Task: structure prediction
Amino acid sequence: MPHPLRNSLLVGLALALAVLAVYWPGLTGPFLFDDYPNIVTNPLIQISQLNWDSISRAAQGYVPGKLGRPVATVGFALDYLAWGKNPWGYKLHSVVIHAFNAVLVLFLARRLLTMAAAGWPGRHANAAALFVALLWAAHPLQVSTVLYVVQRMEMLAHTFVLLGLIAYLQGRIRQQAGKAGTGYLVLSGALAGVGLFAKESAALFPAYTLVLELTLLRFNGRNAAFRNRLVLAYGVGTVAAMAIFLLFILPAQLSPEAFAFRGFTLADRLLTQLRVLPMYLGQMVFPLPRYMLFYYDSIEPSRSLLQPIATLWGAILLSALLVTAWRLRHRAPLVSLGILWFFAAHAITSNILPLEMAFEHRNYFALLGVLLALADVTRRIPVKDTQTGKAIMVGLVSLLVVFFCVIRTATWGNELHLMTELVSNNPSSPRASSDLATLYIGMSDSHPQSPFYVWGIHEFERGSLLPNASPLPEYALIVSAATTGEPVLDQWWDRLMRKLETRPIGIQENLAVMGLVTSRAAGINIDDQRLSHAYNRLASRSQLPPASYAAMGDHAINVMGDEQRATNFFLQAISSSVNNPRYVRQIIETLTIEGHVKIAQKALDRASELGVRLDASAP
Result:
């Protein structure tokens, strides 16, 4: 084997092992937040044997997505088969993927640094690429992507994006040398296409390649005719993307319903991103773990450029960066590429979609752009004598960043340490408060005399009064007290109802009410009259999943004896399940078995009106 290739493989292996070592302390951490609906309580990925039926069911495990995310959900299913609900194995799987991505970043960065300027001779480019890959992989900001199991979707999408970029560069370099490169370009597009089935962020691949052309590649080819064709292709693609955005995506987000479940408007979201993007940049450049909050549900939306004033300063900073990137695209193409890749990476999540304001995993690829820009800036810093002093400083900074990353992974490996730190760093976060309170209650084994139980109730009380708090703390307080035989305070029900009446109805509101319904069905002594008022209010203000309507119907008929209300709920469940005849059949059969023949007949009539096939052969 040629020595250069052997050395490259050895360096890549060493990098992967280093990444595994850095993240190893975090493998003992818990599942978090969206891990629960996507993995822990998701029956579609919980397979008991490896066969085509179970894999095809797992491929549909991400229900909200139109394409689905089968590349990721099948991986979750295989983890479940191997590890059950032990998060250790899931996290190890994610770390291995991240280590592989780090090797891909190493090879990609080496190629980019070599192309950028003559100032990156061979061994300097190799060393700089290794530092970039190490800092990218072992940056504290990446911890909440790698060890937050559900965000394996983000990592897998970028596995294929990185492979696609390597293939694209290879094809374009061959074309610039007068050789055939079209096959590599087709391969790059196919790889990015596979990434779409892990997460939709892979759709940004054309934006990344466009930035490559604007900076390093400059649309160069064999001759002027080739260059013109390439410019035309990207021009047509850009116009088509803008047309799709303006004609289809934007109108959908301008409808009143688009942001109805959020506590902010489209304008608020766009303005707030002028603060969020600089926050991300600050976390990248000053990677202190205490500035990385994981939960950002306490961010107050910007209502104008001056409210708060940081919005205006953010707009000025981001505008200056964009102008700088454009002006430097020829003189310092790698700096320009890094800045533009940062913006391109946020083109979806910082745009008009009604997503939450901020998440750290949105920087998984964006961090690479910033590190490449900083690497080129560092190269250009003049030194009087040798490069040794600069190399020592870069090495020390790298060690410090890796040290911070190890601290954060160790924190993520201990559930109590993690939860207490999340609340300590961000006491105004309702989610952090709820996680800590839930942990305390669990540590108490539901014994009211335990100090952990007292701390848990106190933290739920504190969290329930935070400005952005959902009804989940009230749900937890009611269920905890009812389970242990403690008094259920009227003020908890009153606050829950007030939030259901005044807050936008979203996932958390649905989880709170349906959690109460499920707890009541499990035999926990919950005030049925108050529960009925709660789910009636929820149903009157939102469109719910079919299972929620069916659960409310069960309570209405079996506990409250309200046949009319129950009928309405079951009919809504049928109407919401047109594409799931198996579930419709299950509802009707259950109603019949339980003796609710009239409701079952009305449900059957509704299914017939909607054209739902209920024969045994229906899927």
About this structure: The two ends are 55 Å apart (CA to CA). Residues 224-254 form the longest helix (31 residues). The chain has a mean pLDDT of 92. The chain is about 70% helix and 0% strand.
